[in-house]
Design goal:
The structure is a single chain. Helix 1 packs across helix 5, helix 2 runs parallel beside helix 7 and helix 10 packs parallel to helix 11. This protein is an alpha+beta fold. The chain contains eleven helices and 15 strands. The chain is elongated. The strands form three sheets. Strands 5-4-3-6-2-1-7-8 form an eight-stranded mixed β-sheet. A five-stranded mixed β-sheet has the order 9-10-13-11-12, with helices on both faces. Strands 14-15 form a two-stranded antiparallel ribbon. It binds adenosine-5'-diphosphate and magnesium ion. The site of adenosine-5'-diphosphate (ADP) has 22 residues, from helix 2 and helix 5. It comes from Roseburia hominis (strain DSM 16839 / JCM 17582 / NCIMB 14029 / A2-183). This is DNA mismatch repair protein MutL.
Length: about 325
Amino acid sequence: QETIDKIAAGEVVERPSSVVKELVENAIDARATAVTVEIKEGGTTFVRITDNGCGIEREQVPLAFLRHSTSKIKSVEDLLCIHSLGFRGEALSSIAAVSQVELITKTYSDLTGTRYVIEGSREMSNDEIGAPDGTTFIVRNLFYNTPARKKFLKTAQTEGNYISDLIERLALSHPDVSFKFISNGQTKMHTSGNSNEKDLIYHIYGRDITAALLPVCAETEYFSVKGFVGKPMISRGNRSYESYFINGRYIKSALLSKAVEEAYKGFMMQHQYPFCVLYFTMDTELLDVNVHPTKMELRFSNNEEVYRKLYQTIRDVLTHKEFIPAV
Ligand code: ADP
Ligand code: MG
């Protein structure tokens, strides 16, 4: 079982940011309104996620770490229309297979909480303790028992950047959740949990960018899209300023990126990338969400139309509107 878990872990846990993604999504599924993510050394040695969600009942704690144990909806169709982000029940078992996990959790109705420690899939302790409502996961020394995988990690700086990119997107996809991100003891981001998308973008990326946003709002027969595109000179030299959300979920899509990047041709220089935050609403029948266990990479059943419609939408926005100049 340990070996199987380790192999399965390779699918779900590629790097520290995968751990953060899975645990934050679980926190959101648990209806947390505040989530704190704290990392050290890019998350390679220490990740702590604290939420004020529903908590896990005492008897359920060990079960939650079993593979394919999920308390959530199991149908893929439900996934993108309902709020549940997880559905495979693979995250906790995978993370626990390749790291040292400490969990402290308490439900609203229980008087005491549970502290559970599991390392390399082995239960180390399970105790009743006093704890606040909600759940805290601490994940230490990722890949400590799989040195071959550990070798593929990048520098702490780079791994930390992946996490901060991810948290930006998670915050953008959940304006109603307050996110706090702390790296090596420094607070890097703190959202209020009650701002609109534009204020959030402003807060997360700063004034230089928000001052030059163009609103996008379009309805096509394949999707509706809302959000903002930014002034093309603002670029990180990669896609980390491109954010796409489908039915509330942050996703990566080479197709969507390509459509937006093509639409920007003539509006930006060659080495530049667009700034965009685009929220799509789409019929789940047009989506194939099951392509990868981490559920980040999506496919469309009608690639060409989605591409063309998005290209045209962004092209129109860029062509017909003036950027509000930065002040
Ligand atoms: P999934 O999210 O696909 O159900 P996971 O392995 O991520 O599977 O989590 C297993 C189970 O543990 C969840 O179904 C949920 O019941 C419970 N759980 C995990 N994290 C939390 C949390 N932060 N708060 C409450 N319950 C949680
Ligand atoms: Mg999950």
